[in-house]
Amino acid sequence: MTTQQTSHVQSTIHRRDVIRCLGSGLGLFSTGYMHWPELLAAHATGSREQDYACILLWMKGGPSQFETFAPKPEHRHSGETRAISTSVAGIEIAENLPLTARKMQDICVIRSMNSKEGSHPRASFLLHTGNIPTPSVRHPALGSIVAQQLTRTDHDLPAFVKIGAQRRNSSGAGFLGVEYEPFTMQRADAAPRNTELPVAPSRFRRRMGLLNQLESEINILGLENQVIEQRSLYQEARNLVLSPDMAVFDIQQEPATMQAAYGESSFGQGCLLARRLVEAGVTFVEIELGNWDTHQDNFARTRELCQQMDRSYAQLLEDLKQRGMLERTLVIWMGEFGRTPRINPRAGRDHYPKAFSLALAGAGVQGGQVIGRTDAGGVEVTERPVGVSDLFQTFCQALKIDADHENMSPIGRPIKVVEGGTPVLEVFG
User: Fold this and answer.
1) Is residue 46 part of a domain?
2) How many domains does the chain fold into?
3) What are the distances in angstroms from CA 406 to CA 176, 413, 416?
4) Taking a C-beta distance cutoff of 8 angstroms, is the pair 325, 379 a contact?
5) Residue 356 and residue 337 in contact, taking contact as beta carbons nearer than 8 Å
6) Do residues 322 and 401 both lie within one domain?
7) Helices 298-322 and 266-280 meet at what angle, rounded to 10?
8) Which of 83, 125, 151, 253 is the most exposed place for a label (fewest CB within 10 A)?
């Protein structure tokens, strides 16, 4: 197999495939060694090297800034939405987020985000990776970057976990390789799929011993390097499925009062699991909540979505703070873009990357402030514009990551963690 072929195979591997094969102990033997890489899936193991972590609350579809963190109550563009006071004098947010309003002292809102990407796939890729999609290079997602830069391999949990994604999206490890692909869970209230062994652990270990014997014979064919790499990945997967650390995925171990505090929604359960994972040493957790693509019936749909996220978001911040974890955990609330100031004939708002909002907390972020401003109708950014590269520089600043660190791409060109931009230093007070 050529280097190019191996790279292509690795880019399409899924962790669930290796765990499924390990669980059965049979399927991998029927494929032939030339296809074994297709059965591998990677996960970055270990705890946080610098004790920093990141939780991304991904609002899939593009949340309306007017109905969340940047209401315009005095302008006709506000529609039905009214503003409410927060725990910080002078800062108002939308009435849809009453519990979040009480945590404003811990939250920094950026109201001057802007980009040029207004389609969901391209904008989602941009806000996940800091780069626009290109045919020649598949850039890694923020979660994979954080996993690469901050984790060490001293325990068995994956470094990058995605919760609630209904289908695999385009943002993953990219050219960083399968080691930094996310461990994906559709639900937080159930154990990860394909991690329960169908046989006793002792029998499973014997099957792994048989695999080692077969691999020893393959070494004769001059494939020693491939065997070493494959054996390393299988070892990590075996450690995961046998590890007592798997108990961290069971949110039922939390007191009933804590479960109730996060709420019964899937997003709330995801936030609770995210706290447990970060507490156990996972470096990056992404929880997805959609669909914010409110082209019609914007006000009712956004209220419903805010009801799902408001309680969970506020409780997550409170929980992290009470446990002394917020100061080293960056919590990001964002989507791929905002919604149009003008309300369309279907009582909806359309895509609007020209001026939108997001919220940051933890990891040195100075809460209780708003950065940037738009005009009276929310049409144009009028103060402190923030681009996507600036935002990713800011993420790196918060997490103590070297934004100038270079990784070698498949096309033979070194690529920095963040290309261009400058950190928004006001975020840190």
Assistant:
1) no
2) 2
3) 11, 9, 4
4) no
5) yes
6) yes
7) 30
8) 253
